[in-house]
Structures are given as C-alpha cells and as structure tokens.
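Catalogue entry: protein
Contents: sequence, fold tokens
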Amino acid sequence: MVNVTIATPLGDIIAEIDTARAPITAGRFLANVDAGLYDGGAFFRTVITGNYGGNDNQPQNDVKIDVIQAGLKPDAPKDMGTIVLERTRDTGILHQDGVLSTPRMPSDPNSGYAGFFICIGPQPNLDYGADRYPDKQGFAAFGRVISGMDVVRKIQLEPAGLPVSDEVRAAQSVPNEQQRLTPPIAVLSIKRS
C-alpha cells in the first residue's frame, strides 16, 4: 500500500493506494501523482442520489450512484492513452464508502483514463456484474480513503449545475451539466505521504 495526501481548499483527504491488488490502475495513478499531473487539477463533478444530503442530480440515469470526480490539471497532456480494466471480480476491491476508482467510457471497458472518482457510501452498481453500464464490466477500484471522508462529503454537497435553459435541458444537449461543480474544487496537490 502507498498512501497519498489529496490537498484541497476544504481540507486534506488521505488515501491508501492498493498497488498489490490493482497494479495497473494504481501504477497509472501514482505515475500521474509523481509527475504532478493532478496538482492544479480539480474535483469538477458531483453525482448525487439524495441519500447523503443533496438532491438527485442524475434524473436521466436508471442506475444511480454517489461519487465525486477529479481530473488532471489543465495543461496536462491531452492524450495519455487508456488502461486495461482491472475488474473488481479479479482485484476484490469493491466500490465501498471512500473507494477510489477510475472513470471509463460506457462503450469500452478498457477505456480507463487519468481522472479518478471517490465513492460516497457503498456503490455496488459500479462493481463487476452490476448494472451501471450494459456490459456489466464495472469500474477499476484501486484504493480507499483512510482519513478525510468529511472533506469528500463537503465536496459532494458543493453547488453544482450551470444555468441552462429549460429548452436546452429538455433537448439534453448538455448532458450531466447539473453535475458540474460550480466552481470546481481545486486539487492543490496530490503527494505520496
């Protein structure tokens, strides 16, 4: 296990990264940490079901989740490639409260990219065999928060959603816009601790 400290204006989040059970995903995350690619990035998305104090902001989804999502700093390389999905059935790291995982595209399980998300509460719909995406391959979990879940929950409940007209929202030409943190919460740095 390798510990990292995620520094934000709302406080620090300390996570342990499981390099033994999720070597590909953890390795990619730690390479980005070591290169400083998250320093100056942001938590830009909050996905809420209403179970933890916020209002449901994913009305278009039948399978709902509670997570916050972060990305790289703006001047990070744009095309860093994707990684092979390390399925939860193989790693044994399930999407429980505080688990870190890797976003991917709905159409390709092997499309994990450089951002990450943190689960708020148990999120079994993100595990292998579950229904978040039709392929049921799940997401690649690779670590967990060991201190600072209060900060994670604060970030989840920060203001989200840009003003969008009813016509635009009805046309869904701005998908997930109601999940965009406004403003984003800065990732001041992520360092090994």
The chain has a mean pLDDT of 90.
